Structures are given as structure tokens and as C-alpha cells.
Amino acid sequence: MRSFQQRLPEFEARGVRVVGISVDPPEVNRRQSQKLGYTFPLLSDPNAKIIRRYDVLHPGAGPKGADIARPAEFLIDSNGVVRWVNLTENIAVRARPEQVLEALNQLSPAGQ
Amino acid sequence: MKRRWNWPIWVGFVVVVAGLFSYGFFARFPTTRDFPWANLLLFGIGAALLIVGLFRAFGRPQVYRGKIFGSIFTAIAVLVVAFFSYGIFYVVRQVPASAGAPRIGQKAPDFILLDQNKKPIGLGDLLSDSRAVALIFYRGFW
Q1: Which of A1, B3, B98, B141 is 20 to 30 A from B28 (CA-CA)?
Q2: A-chain residues within 8 Å CB-CB of B116?
Q3: Is A54 helix (H, G, I), strand (E, B) or coil?
Q4: CA–CA separation, A31 vs A12, rounded Å?
Q5: How does pLDDT run across A52-101, given as a tens digit for each residue?
Q6: pTM of the full predicted structure?
Q7: Domain spanning A2-107: which CATH class is it, in words?
């Protein structure tokens, strides 16, 4: 996420919104956003309802056995259709912004 | 005769422990997180020093100290590396398959969730003024 914040101007220039989702409450997201200087929205899904709907739940992996999201990244076009997905097999290895920017090039190489 | 200080054991041990605790720092950068080569490098340097120290302690015990504490430090260092390897090469790979996650070409499930300012934000809102949305699910800060 740090790397996405660093490259956020490139996403914005290409009309792409970057959004994070986790089980953290808004208060934690607010604190972390301020601390880490994130300017994109961090959405709160405390009961993992949307996380479940995307089937990216990692049951019992959170503090005190709480259900949390596993790392996963989706690129969704303006019609709401998924155009690129990254489901890592290693929690420590997550999508890099350049992968998403590359996927964006494939989406419509001609225009912005 | 007073035996000499066997510094490679001490330094090697400190380097191995530093290899464990520096993960919190190295994990901040994708190049050192995707594969923890920086930590493994520290473990390697620490192990080499410990081996040198043990050779001194057991090879020339009349000159160098460290037969007992060198063995203890080395055993702890082995446990540290084993613990790190278990975490970084096994635990992090225990990720659910997510077979039901939306695939390329499928419609992304809609949502409305609160952002960090408790403002409701929906996928539709995000898409209405943009070309695409990069949705990043993350484990959370807690």
C-alpha cells in the first residue's frame, strides 16, 4: 500500500481510483492514513461481509482468531467488470503498482 | 594464561538476532519482502562468524574462550533461523484458495462501506468518476 501511495499520481493521471478494504474500523483507518500519509480511501468492512462476497476471507488469521481479508487485488473497469485479478499464494508477496499499471495498459492501450 | 576473547561468536550471534528483528524494517520494501534475501544474508554472515568462533573455541581452547557459551549461542541462533524460516517459508503461504473470487470478465460485487472519515463510499460512486478502480484487500493494521 505504501508503494501504491508513492505511485498514486500515476494512477490519478490515468483516471484510476485506488481503494483499500480491510476489517479495520474507520478510526484505525483514519489514524493509519494520517500516520502513513495515505490519501486514497481505506474502506472498513468490520464484519467481513464484502470480503466474504469477494471470497477473499482468511478465517481466523487476525488478532485473537478474528476473520480478516487475505491480500488480494482487483482492477475493475467503469462497467463494473473485473479486468485483472491478483490472488497471492504468499501473504508477504503482494501486487506491485507497476503490475496494476501494466494491466491498465492492456485494458485499452490506445486511450487514457 | 588468560584466554582471549572469542569475538566472532558474540558478533555472529548479534548479527543472527539482527537478521530476525530487521524483518520489520525490510518488510516495508517489496524488493526485500517478496524474498527475504537481506535477512538470509545477515543469517549467513552470522553463521559464518559463529562457525569461525566455534573452530577457535574447540580447535585452540588454550587460546580462545567460548566452548560453552559458543555452543549455547549457536544453538539459539539455529532456533532463531528455524523460527524465521518456518514463518517466512511456511506460515505466509497458508493462504485460502479463494476459488469463488470474481474472475476476469465477471461483474465485481457492489458494496457500500465507510471510509476513514466515516463517509459511505460505494463501488458505483468510485466508478462514476473514474476509468477504473484498483481494489486492494489487505490484512489490516488492527
Answers
A1: B98
A2: 26, 29-30, 33, 41-42, 44
A3: coil
A4: 23
A5: 999 999 999 999 999 999 999 999 999 999 999 999 999 999 999 999 99
A6: 0.86
A7: alpha beta
Distance between the two ends of chain A, CA-based, in angstroms?
24
Q: For A8-29, how does the pLDDT look when each residue is reduced to its tens digit (9 = 90+)? A: 999 999 999 999 999 999 999 9
Angle between the B67-89 and B37-59 helix axes, to the nearest 10 degrees? 160
Q: How far apart are CA A98 and CA A40, in angstroms?
A: 17
Residue B139 — φ and ψ, nearest 5°? -70, -25
**Chain A contacts in chain B segment 35-94 (CB below 8 A):** 36, 88, 92-93
Domain segments of chain A as ranges:
2-107
CB contact under 8 A, B33 and A74: no
CB contact under 8 A, A43 and B117: no
Counting one residue from A and one from B, how many pairs have CB atoms under 8 Å apart?
206
